TrEMBL record:
Residues 58-74 have a biased composition (Polar residues). Coiled coil: none annotated. Belongs to the ABC-4 integral membrane protein family. The keyword Cell membrane applies. This is FtsX-like permease family protein. Residues 274-394, 736-851 form the ABC3 transporter permease C-terminal domain. It is a multi-pass membrane protein. The chain crosses the membrane at residues 269-295, 318-344, 364-386, 407-430, 442-475, 496-516, 732-757, 782-804, 824-845. Residues 58-79 are annotated as: Disordered. It is found in: Cell membrane. The keyword Transmembrane helix applies. Residues 19-238, 499-696 form the MacB-like periplasmic core domain.
Length: 859
């Protein structure tokens, strides 16, 4: 009880000094709990949607995915005949069976040819209105579609794109463009996470999406009263046999949820990883806080020991303070985590994914995990200061000797740090000289971990050297004030090292990712310049296919000399050694693709791969299966016949674009794959006539105006988009790393604040002998700047080393250009100096307000 009272008294006596440490715990716990609440809420939202929209039993084709996805390379969904509906109705236990048709291989535009698609990446779905949809949709305006010129739209899409009754829309598919007018607007009875949904009547949907009547994409079956879904599935399967995919509502929901989980898990674990980095940085803050608080209470601890307190009791007293700090920070963090989750939901809403707070899900495990994490991390961070406190002898403490200097421990620490750093550098070297990316990546991860730990451990030794160098470069120009700031930073190298290390971690990751991102952009740009020999590239985008009418529009541009079509097919390959390779990809293109993409070969000429009954293979595949020029490969095309193709070229594995591709001509593939099973174009490559590039660019864009889903890009556009995509990804990562950097800044503030308190008498004496308030504030600001710059130098240097090593592995995949983004690195370095200035504002202000006499009289 005495230990608890003492700990409580100390905790509240230093509540101002504990506040920033509590904020660090709060932020980290909030990010963890916010991530878990957000992902749990998304799971709940989609789970309700999947359960509400699934019929008791669903019958689909074998080709359809478990999640009902209808996107295919032909641009048409797989279908089953209307006779299946009749057969299903004969099954015992069937109350009703209804055929349905829908597709996601569509683009919907308004009268101005603007796309009516979600901005969140969710699909655009066009289907036939049926009774199963009527269960989950409520018509709020107008009426359901009742003819070929009518369409109904979901309320969210109507609001987003300002659609109203009577507005014209166009549904673009491989069949053609179907025009209709909005006849009704319907709202979901459950949350719609963001898909854009359009309903035609069933007959019109069949014609618009598939091009013929009497077919469906799936059959919705409702069970009679008293018949379970499992029993109904057995009965339907008994009637249909095993030629179709039959699933219960639970199986459909689980398949959809499993597909969603793969996306959510990537996001969840990535965000938790950044929260872990913030926790790691927070450890340095807490260690520094408790180390300084223990040092400031040296005489108090000595008195406690002198009157009978044991080492364990002193140790326990400090750890109880840590538990209190962890509990307070964690409880507040759990509450803030719910706010973070709501904020993320609002952010996703701005991006087009609607998540309702009505579905906010806070599982009991979330606050429990947040509380346990916060308390455990805080106690672990406080353990070393608590252990050192217990070692203080009563007489040393009463003599105000402070924390005992342990030279032997410092030497051991330096040796361990040097060994770890050396091992990390050696691992990075092994990674950089590896022959295979897979093996090298393991050494890279080990090297990053060891070098990071090594720099943290060796921090005090590095600080004692680097701060002197920084002092000579940055501080000496400020005269005596600068020299005092340097000595203050050097007074406790362990403290300076820990404070700088907290900032180092976040900046090292920023620098590493900047180098990797810039190198990837530079390598891809260089590869584009070397390999791409066409003027314009037309991508299928999110739709996955380029509709035939868009291809014809591109070919009709008079300024275009040629248009190369490019498709992708699945096939099983049988090599001469008898090995069967399942689900390999064959890239089919026009012969002019050999000019559009200058593919490097190790044997043969790539142009020969487009000869009749010919193909190319990539270098690794040829080595694995003993293939050479003239070898015959048996190609069993999916949805087609079997062909025997002769290897005419072997492409290099050093390529970046289309690495590992196997090529054949479209004419060759067309001999073995029926026209109705032939995939649509994935990309188009267009070459302008000599000297007409600018005119052709404008004309091509104009020709494809009716097809806004297909952007026309020249090489400059393509490079810009590539840079923007990587830049957006990096900005998102930087935003997440900002949490760790904020915690590190709090560490600098806390260290300075406690340092000012620790030096109260010294500050009073300096003021008494003539140091002005302005000079005092400048001294503290300079000390803060040099600590921040010290951490930045370590972090940026370490990060550049990691990034350069990672680029060596990327070079094995074809990304051979190393580019260090010096503007970013220099900007971060300068920003670190401003971080130091910002962190010193409050401590410097408080130091300047000290009463000189009271400061001198401080015990």
């Amino acid at each position: 009880m005495t230990v608890l009272k003492t700990s409580m008294r100390n905790f509240f006596a230093h509540k101002g000094r504990m506040a920033l440490s509590a904020v660090a715990v709060l932020l980290s716990v909030a990010f963890v709990c916010g991530t878990l609440v957000f992902t749990d809420t998304m799971n709940t939202t989609f789970d309700k949607l999947f359960q509400a929209t699934a019929s008791d039993v669903t019958v689909g084709t074998k080709e359809s995915s478990d999640t009902g996805e209808t996107t295919s390379r032909t641009g048409k969904p797989p279908v089953l005949p209307a006779s299946v509906v009749t057969e299903v109705r004969k099954a015992e236990g069937v109350k009703s069976a209804e055929g349905a048709v829908f597709s996601t291989s569509v683009t919907v535009v308004n009268a101005d040819k603007d796309r009516l698609s979600p901005s969140s990446g969710a699909p655009t779905i066009v289907g036939g209105w049926n009774s199963n949809d009527a269960r989950t949709m409520k018509i709020t305006s107008g009426s359901a579609p009742a003819g070929p010129d009518q369409v109904m739209v979901d309320a969210d899409t109507a609001d987003k794109h300002h659609l109203k009754l009577g507005d014209e829309i166009g549904v673009i598919t491989v069949v053609g463009t179907h025009h209709a007018h909005v006849s009704g607007i319907a709202d979901f009875t459950v949350t719609n996470p963001g898909a854009a949904i359009f309903y035609l009547d069933t007959k019109t949907a069949q014609q618009a999406l598939i091009g013929k009547s009497g077919v469906y994409t799936e059959v919705h079956v409702t069970a009679a009263q008293g018949v379970s879904d499992e029993q109904l599935k057995k009965n339907v399967t008994a009637v249909l046999g095993h030629d179709y995919k039959v699933q219960t509502a639970k199986e459909v929901a689980e398949a959809n949820q499993k597909d969603l989980e793969s996306f959510l898990n990537v996001m969840k674990y990535a965000m938790l990883g950044f929260a872990g980095i913030a926790f790691l940085v927070g450890i340095f803050l807490i260690v520094n806080t408790f180390s300084m608080l223990v040092a400031q209470r040296t005489r108090e601890i000595g008195l406690m020991r002198a009157i009978g307190s044991s080492r364990k009791q002193v140790n326990r007293s400090v750890l109880v303070e840590a538990v209190l700090l962890g509990v307070v920070g964690s409880v507040l963090g759990v509450g803030a985590g719910v706010g973070v989750a709501v904020g993320l939901m609002k952010l996703m809403g701005q991006m087009g994914m609607n998540l309702s707070t009505d579905d906010l899900t806070v599982a009991w495990t979330t606050p429990a995990l947040g509380l346990v994490l916060g308390v455990v991390v805080t106690v672990l961070a406080a353990y070393l200061p608590a252990r050192r406190a217990g070692k203080i002898s009563p007489m040393a403490a009463l003599r105000e000797a402070g924390m005992p200097a342990d030279a032997k421990a410092g030497v051991v620490r330096a040796v361990i740090g040097l060994v770890l750093t050396g091992a990390g550098i050696a691992s990075l070297y092994v990674s950089a000289t590896a022959d295979a990316a897979k093996g090298g990546s393991a050494w890279l991860g080990l090297g990053i971990l060891l070098s990071l730990i090594g720099f943290v451990v060796i921090g005090p030794l590095v600080a004692s050297v680097l701060v002197r160098v920084l002092g000579a470069v940055m501080l000496r120009i400020f005269g005596p004030v600068g020299r005092m700031a340097e000595r203050n930073a050097l007074r406790n190298p362990r403290r300076t090292g820990a404070t700088g290390a907290a900032l180092m971690i976040g900046l090292a990751l920023v620098a590493c990712l900047s180098v990797v991102g810039s190198s990837m952009v530079a390598s891809a740009t260089d590869e584009l310049d070397k390999s791409v020999g066409t003027d314009f590239i037309i991508d299928s985008g999110s739709t996955g296919v380029i509709v035939p009418q868009a291809v014809q529009a591109a070919k009709s541009v008079p300024e275009i000399a040629r248009v190369t079509e490019y498709r992708v097919l699945d096939a099983d390959l049988t090599t001469p050694d008898g090995t069967v390779v399942k689900k390999e990809t064959i890239n089919a293109a026009d012969p002019t693709f050999a000019q559009d993409l200058r593919t490097k070969t190790v044997s043969g000429d790539i142009a020969d791969a487009y000869r009749p009954d010919s193909m190319s293979v990539f270098e690794g595949f040829a080595k694995d299966h003993g293939l050479e020029l003239g070898s015959t490969v048996t190609v069993d095309f999916k949805d087609g016949r079997t062909a025997k193709l002769t290897v005419r070229a072997i492409t290099s594995d050093e390529a970046v674009m289309d690495k590992g591709a196997m090529y054949a001509s479209i004419a060759t593939v067309a001999k073995y794959v029926p026209a109705d099973k032939m995939p649509q174009d994935l990309m188009l490559f267009a070459m302008a006539k000599e000297g007409q590039q600018d005119t052709a660019y404008k004309s091509l864009k104009a020709a494809l105006h009716d097809y806004p889903q297909y952007p026309v890009r020249d090489q400059t556009d393509y490079k810009k988009e590539l840079k923007d995509q990587i830049g957006q990804m990096l900005n998102m990562i930087y935003g997440l790393l900002a949490l760790a950097i904020i915690v590190a800044i709090l560490g600098v503030v806390n260290t300075l604040a406690l340092s000012v308190v620790e030096r109260t008498r010294e500050i009073g004496l300096m003021r008494a002998i003539g140091l002005s308030r302005r000079q005092l504030r400048r001294m503290i600001r300079l000390e803060s700047v040099v600590i921040a710059v010290f951490g930045a130098l370590l972090g940026l240097g370490l990060g550049i080393g990691w990034g350069a090593t990672a680029q060596k592995l990327l070079a094995l995949e074809g990304f051979k250009v190393l580019e260090i983004p010096w503007p970013t690195i220099i900007g971060v370095f300068i920003g670190s100096a401003f971080v130091g200035l910002f962190a010193a504002l409050v401590p410097a202000f408080r130091a300047g307000r000290m009463n000189v006499l009271n400061a001198i009289a401080t015990d």
